[in-house]
Amino acid sequence: MNRLQVELPGLTLKNPIMPASGCFGFGKEYAQLYDLSKLGAIMVKATTLEPRFGNPTPRVAETPAGMLNAIGLQNPGLEKVVTEELPWLEQYDVPIIANVAGSETEDYVAVAERISKAPNVRALELNISCPNVRCGGITFGTDPKIAGELTRAVKAVSSVPVYVKLSPNVTDVTEIARAVEAGGADGLTLINTLVGMRFDPRTGRPVIANGTGGLSGPAVKPVALRMVYEVSRSVSIPVIGMGGISDVDDVINFMSAGASAVAVGTANFVDHFVCPNLIDALPDRMDELGIRNITELIGRSHR
Amino acid sequence: MNRLQVELPGLTLKNPIMPASGCFGFGKEYAQLYDLSKLGAIMVKATTLEPRFGNPTPRVAETPAGMLNAIGLQNPGLEKVVTEELPWLEQYDVPIIANVAGSETEDYVAVAERISKAPNVRALELNISCPNVRCGGITFGTDPKIAGELTRAVKAVSSVPVYVKLSPNVTDVTEIARAVEAGGADGLTLINTLVGMRFDPRTGRPVIANGTGGLSGPAVKPVALRMVYEVSRSVSIPVIGMGGISDVDDVINFMSAGASAVAVGTANFVDHFVCPNLIDALPDRMDELGIRNITELIGRSHR
Amino acid sequence: MIRNEHMKVAGQREIARNIYELVLEGELADEIKEPGKFVHVRAGETLDPLLRRPISIADYGNGRITLIYRAEGYGTRVISEKGLHGQADVLGPLGNGFPVEAAAPGTKALLVGGGIGVPPLYGLSRRLKEAGVEPVHVLGFQSEDVVFYEEEFIRLGETHIATVDGSRGAKGFVTDVMASLGHEFSVYYSCGPLPMLKAVAEGMAGTEGYLSFEERMGCGIGACFACVCRTDSNDRGYVKVCSDGPVFKAGVVTL
Amino acid sequence: MIRNEHMKVAGQREIARNIYELVLEGELADEIKEPGKFVHVRAGETLDPLLRRPISIADYGNGRITLIYRAEGYGTRVISEKGLHGQADVLGPLGNGFPVEAAAPGTKALLVGGGIGVPPLYGLSRRLKEAGVEPVHVLGFQSEDVVFYEEEFIRLGETHIATVDGSRGAKGFVTDVMASLGHEFSVYYSCGPLPMLKAVAEGMAGTEGYLSFEERMGCGIGACFACVCRTDSNDRGYVKVCSDGPVFKAGVVTL
Ligand SMILES: Cc1cc2nc3c(=O)[nH]c(=O)nc-3n(C[C@H](O)[C@H](O)[C@H](O)COP(=O)(O)OP(=O)(O)OC[C@H]3O[C@@H](n4cnc5c(N)ncnc54)[C@H](O)[C@@H]3O)c2cc1C
Ligand SMILES: Cc1cc2nc3c(=O)[nH]c(=O)nc-3n(C[C@H](O)[C@H](O)[C@H](O)COP(=O)(O)OP(=O)(O)OC[C@H]3O[C@@H](n4cnc5c(N)ncnc54)[C@H](O)[C@@H]3O)c2cc1C
Ligand SMILES: Cc1cc2nc3c(=O)[nH]c(=O)nc-3n(C[C@H](O)[C@H](O)[C@H](O)COP(=O)(O)O)c2cc1C
Ligand SMILES: Cc1cc2nc3c(=O)[nH]c(=O)nc-3n(C[C@H](O)[C@H](O)[C@H](O)COP(=O)(O)O)c2cc1C
Ligand code: FES
Ligand code: FES
What Gene3D superfamilies does its record include (chains A, B) (predicted)? Predict the structure, then answer.
């Protein structure tokens, strides 16, 4: 038996570690560094119906123990993703979670329907929470009713289980969580980025060309852990936790808080081998903590 | 003319730097370190009608570039504050901003009425945003209607201008800001802490005895700057900005984002002389940036 | 007076597994009038790790202070590995230490320390001896590899070591050793983990005693209310470990 | 192959005001086949500063690489002051460098650098010279105190220095100097701030040229889309500075 194995709707994970969407492209770049088959899964970059160029640069800025980004969902568009990016990934033995984004319900539905048929796509991640695109996006993630309806619409067409990615920029994240659960979501992923800014003291202007950006990295970890804890207690579908994970104790803690698996975003830029390193470090740390199977950790803080 | 001087409702500030509530007690401890008359103002610890013991320990935990606290509004209660703490502070030439907290509207009103009559209290800071107390507190800060009504009730009895301290744990901070402005607030202070958690990997339990705590320090600065920016553009009353300030460029940036003055919290634990150090550093940095009067900075990113 | 000083590192060495002895030089050293006070040390100079770490003053004199700390967590590891480049950002002296005068000259005083609670007892023992008191030390550690300062304590007086696994000295806890001592003590002093303090206070009930406490700290100077302990013995109902303590007379803090 | 290596610090010295030359030793050095590539350097080992800093490889060979960087911002100051304790966490080599073969042996090549854009031109110039090309250098700086490697460039070929305030070499910009050169160039190479690249490309219109760009980076390897530049010349409409560049043929990136 594989001690690190986790079973989730649509996903049999060799281990609970996967790169987070937007921090790993479609895998090609990191494939130069290590074997992608090692990963529990891969959350690929957000895909929209049409290709998007994204926002003007600068698109990123460093902050204390974190970073801001306003990439603006740059991606090659559905057609190219399903005909080039995803087939290329088939050479690896790793389930793909396709991150689906759009401006209108129709966009989400169209992308979801087609992309969910790709043979290696085992689950969708509905991105209703990207703070860096102006139309749609953010409101889907902050209004429980709209979020629930979008989930229902996407569920109706998807060939694979649907996970909904929640925004932390809300008063009550459990309210949205319950709404998308009621809408038929098979799982939840959280957190997306917190909206933040950085200024240039010389000019007095924002550093990010877009003005605001999404805050990620270790700085947001306490907020992410709190939301994973709250949400996992208030729904009965599984949660994939993320937000600032960079070491093996972070993985343990997110799972203790209630996550069934975790995603690693920003840390891939700091230690490009962080995902395989975490996978290698887990068994030893579990031994130290007296944990036989990783699943024992899930939500143990609630018990 | 004093280049650092800022005029705000009820407050003539020698400089825009003041310690944030809860990080400076009632001044006695820091008075051992430097002359409190140097400060622009002092935001004293939250005062409630009755003395409070607060939460069990551990009450604080470190996080990446930040900290969590769940002090639980421990304070000696209104009577002792007005008869002992505030009179002691009269020996210094520094305006006091009294932080007012409670569980019910009546508590706030009672504290506000009496404390606003203390001779050195020049303004109130209505704490509707403390995440670490169970009853009241947090809902006041997340519901625009209740926040507006509370503001109105307190304004009716206060002998000094009323600033309302906003919570960052909301979907739209400008909505609350506008509601309290409509309720008669003379100014706003933000941000209070973000709700967060830290876990112990050995036990799987939260480190803070209270479970959740309030996240502060440099980690939250990007969120604080964004909210100061958004709020200052959507109201016409002045904003005192705070959240992660630790160096002189942070002061410049918060003012560029729209703050008329700033408060420094967590940084007082890291560099106990941070407030006087910032005050000393400002004129040189202003010279470098070609700023004659500090007021030129206020909201310059909006122009 | 409390100073915030960039003290010069006069030396640092690993004296047991992960236990470092750090000697610092500066004016702050001359402000210390009493053993058992502590300093608040910044780990590194960037924003992570952020908070200062409270460390007892193990010894002081001649313009120097000695700190003994365990580098186990994040911040103390940074301090030991690289946080200290020739200097350390130190705030102190802080808090109230052990009252040396509580022990009458010519009497015996019992000093009980556990793990990283042992360091401040060294400075205390030296001051007691100078005052003509005879110190008797009972020092508990996890295992032999983390035992430190045994020689130094022996030089000052009778010294008993206990280790949990018996790899050095008596096997067991300090309280086991205490039970076997045949002395009469005018006063006892103790520093270590809470369960140990509790057991020591129970074992020494009836004798005047002083206990040094640990709590997570924010400010370290009494302003933030992070480090409070319940007490029944004063009108506030609580004390702050950082500014009212860390040393309290036994019975003050509710154990 | 891209490696992530803790390279050994073979030496670091300040060669001009706030400009450091850092020599690193390790296997990564043997992977470099072309001048103008860069490495992604971690500043410190704690979580702040968080992101890596992109720094050009100024020179390479014999198992070593040389980086020349300005310690001005937060991270580079940490690197210069204390981030490097005998070793540096380096990812690289990254990106595509300058094509040496674009200049035919026996011809003259123009190398134009501005400020911290100067370093990669040094490695390039050495390789050009080895290939029998005659390098001519025009190097612009703010003022005399930040001029570096003048001697090193002179040793490789004709070298002109320009400073904005005239405190060394010609007063003015690199383009002022370029206008006064009487040579025929088969190709030009340039690295420096965007306005300079633009002016250089305009001044050299008609000649084949290669420009090295700077953009804020996240991953440094092409995965995060932080560092894109618009272009009209490929079907995607953009290039990534980190993985498609940092060096592009003049005309590719919309200036
Ligand atoms: C008055 C006092 C005197 C002390 N004297 C000594 C001494 O002489 N030698 C020594 O080795 N240790 C001493 N300690 C304990 C020491 O402060 C902690 O071991 C240290 O803070 C842990 O920090 P870290 O970076 O290793 O761990 P981390 O896990 O990185 O610490 C995270 C946070 O928790 C706090 N923390 C963790 N453990 C403790 C603890 N046991 N007590 C207080 N805060 C803690 C840290 O200060 C920091 O804010 C003393 C504590 C107090 C309160
Ligand atoms: C391909 C490439 C090669 C470079 N080669 C060199 C070199 O050889 N020598 C040298 O001194 N500098 C070089 N730079 C610029 C160098 O990366 C920045 O000066 C440095 O990142 C600034 O970091 P800081 O810690 O000083 O500033 P901070 O203000 O702390 O930086 C904050 C963030 O902004 C980024 N940033 C700030 N300025 C720049 C910039 N100009 N370009 C890219 N990112 C920036 C930082 O990387 C960091 O993520 C190069 C940049 C690129 C893209
Ligand atoms: C550069 C960058 C790009 C991102 N792009 C996306 C995206 O396309 N879709 C998405 O759902 N989340 C995106 N995210 C958010 C991450 O997937 C993740 O939710 C967030 O960064 C928190 O995790 P971290 O702190 O580990 O980075 C992006 C994050 C970063 C830093
Ligand atoms: C230990 C601690 C106690 C606090 N207590 C209070 C309080 O009593 N009332 C209040 O309005 N804010 C309180 N705050 C919030 C601060 O005033 C401030 O809004 C917040 O910490 C953000 O600023 P900073 O990042 O500079 O600390 C407290 C913060 C800390 C860290
Ligand atoms: S640590 Fe702040 S009151 Fe003790
Ligand atoms: S820095 Fe990530 S794509 Fe270039």
Answer: Aldolase class I
